Amino acid sequence: MNKSYLITGANRGIGLALTKIIIEKGDRVIALCRKPEEAEELRAISNTQGNLNIFKADVTKEDELIKISKSIDNIDFLICNAGIMGPRGGMNDKDTNYRNISEVLMTNVAGPFFTIKSFIGKLRESKDPKIVILSSRMGTQMHHGSDAYFYRASKAAVNNIMVSFSNELNQFNIPITSFHPGWVQTDMGGSNASLSPEESASSLIEQFKELGSKNTGKFYNYEGSEISF
Ligand SMILES: NC(=O)c1ccc[n+]([C@@H]2O[C@H](COP(=O)([O-])OP(=O)(O)OC[C@H]3O[C@@H](n4cnc5c(N)ncnc54)[C@H](OP(=O)(O)O)[C@@H]3O)[C@@H](O)[C@H]2O)c1
């Protein structure tokens, strides 16, 4: 039977690549993005394919997410993909200020929290519900980086939140797992990255098929190996 996926930040990068592959397989995608009017690729797909619905949502705005959840049917798979890098430099990066730190933490940490909270009711209506968060290896505690302080911290924090959710959602048999998508050629990853968005997305989708209660609360690389965090 066809499944229904909800993806945040679906208008470009890894979110768009995931959306295209899932739509091509015949499953349904509820694609969330901040500016549907500018999401040309998504809109072009929805003009020809009936299994894509686009909604406007900023993941830092819980009211927008709740409003969408009231207007859709149940979902089987929730993918918290939306994210930002924020200031990339070291401790003296002048952009590492209150406003930019707040934006990274609100988007990458509170965003997945609000998304999961808003759509949990729709997932509970599914026979086989699953949640995935796009995190990053940059958030592991044992790293050698001295850059992107708050991106790293945000991905460490969202993995911690993933574990809390896995404990709270055990009672509903809803597994939740984080993934590192690889280093991917997107606006965030840059053109020197090692994977195309399509390569990352197709490998992630292969891994998603395997997810169950044995994986909840864990963090995986895009090719399936477990990452300690
Ligand atoms: N690329 C990599 O190498 C890499 C590596 C590790 C982890 N990741 C993670 O993978 C995920 C996707 O990354 P990407 O490379 O595809 O990034 P990207 O190309 O920069 O795309 C980011 C997406 O997130 C959306 N977004 C940002 N803030 C949002 C908000 N407040 N509300 C809703 N949507 C928002 C963007 O929408 P707008 O178009 O409106 O800005 C865009 O659709 C992120 O969580 C990232 O941290 C990526």
TrEMBL record:
<dbReference type="InterPro" id="IPR052184">
    <property type="entry name" value="SDR_enzymes"/>
</dbReference>
<protein>
    <submittedName>
        <fullName>SDR family NAD(P)-dependent oxidoreductase</fullName>
    </submittedName>
</protein>
<dbReference type="GO" id="GO:0016616">
    <property type="term" value="F:oxidoreductase activity, acting on the CH-OH group of donors, NAD or NADP as acceptor"/>
</dbReference>
<dbReference type="Pfam" id="PF00106">
    <property type="entry name" value="adh_short"/>
</dbReference>
<dbReference type="InterPro" id="IPR036291">
    <property type="entry name" value="NAD(P)-bd_dom_sf"/>
</dbReference>
<dbReference type="InterPro" id="IPR002347">
    <property type="entry name" value="SDR_fam"/>
</dbReference>
